[in-house]
Amino acid sequence: MDNKTPKASSGTRQGVFRRLIQGTTTPLASIFGSGFLVVVSLLASTVGPYSLFAIIGICAFAYAVGWVIRHNIRHVEPALAALSPPRTVRLLEQLSDITLIPAYIISVTLYLRIMASYVLGYFEADAEIYEKLLTSGIIIAILLIELTKGLKILEGLERWTLIITLAIIFLMIGSFAFYNAAALTAGTLVLPDLPDHSLWQTVTILCGILIVVQGFETTRYLGDELDADTRIRASRNSQLFSAAIYILFILVATPLMHLLSGDATGNGLIMLATEVAAWLVVPLVFAAVFSQFGAAIAEAISASGNIMELTRHRLTTRVTYIIICGLAIALTWTADTFEILALASRAFAFYFFLQCIIACDVAKKKGLKAAFAILAALLLFITIFAVPAG
Length: 390
Description:
This protein is mostly helical.
């Protein structure tokens, strides 16, 4: 893609810091897009009292994959920008771009399905048929906005979405910690039961949770705006920051997981918020609506851009959105929330698998090649075997 062309580093220290913040905001908004809304319920229904160890493992694995993306920013992009880029690398990179299209479309569906789940959950009307109807209605509304005004007018949502999302996460962490402290003092602190899963079931379900920490790869596509060094630092910072928040979030949420009774639900946090402090529910639902809608818009714009490049602009922008929204509605009616989530994890795992193969091809040292090959094998395993929770 054209926007992967490395950009020269320049500017004052203040300008460098501003670009770093800009570059960090994009992956953070994507990483927290839907993850914090579903991760507690997913882990509760999969590993229960061992949720903290699971999220640490997931974040560590995601960081290793992020290392591959950062390696490719540093070493693959210059190779692709050369007058005669290596044929294998160029073809694999084009295939990677193609695989992102279905991944983005699946993500659009996932974000809006979670949004519908939280809205309906607030009104205690979250039956699956209503979720599908509301999700379809929102997708049609997005299409109408594109056909009349254009979605570009909504691109500025990203920064505000991140601010609101982080605010509610910190608010919930503080509230959960206070509740746990009181329960510990009273001797009523209870850990959730371990779900009755085989080792294979547990591993394959955890593989389907990769999507909750996905988003760090977006720095790969900011080459028109930011230089390579800034994007590498932004990717690393976003992963370290988000990992710390997720680990802390799960740490304080684990003692409350028994309230979910081991069931995976798309809006399980509403139940926990209601138990801890009823006033938390309204800002939580507001954050869910804002973050999921903003994330869906961002993914739809990205999918449209990739389709335009793939077809060499033979399709109009409007036609690309008709395709995207049509496929999103079809997926809405053929899969539930956790099936869509696992499918998204598999789609992005395949993209990361290709990135590992590219890194392996470009790497010079045998140790690096071996590390990239191992990661590629693990990602291929996720692509093939990841299953939904529930």
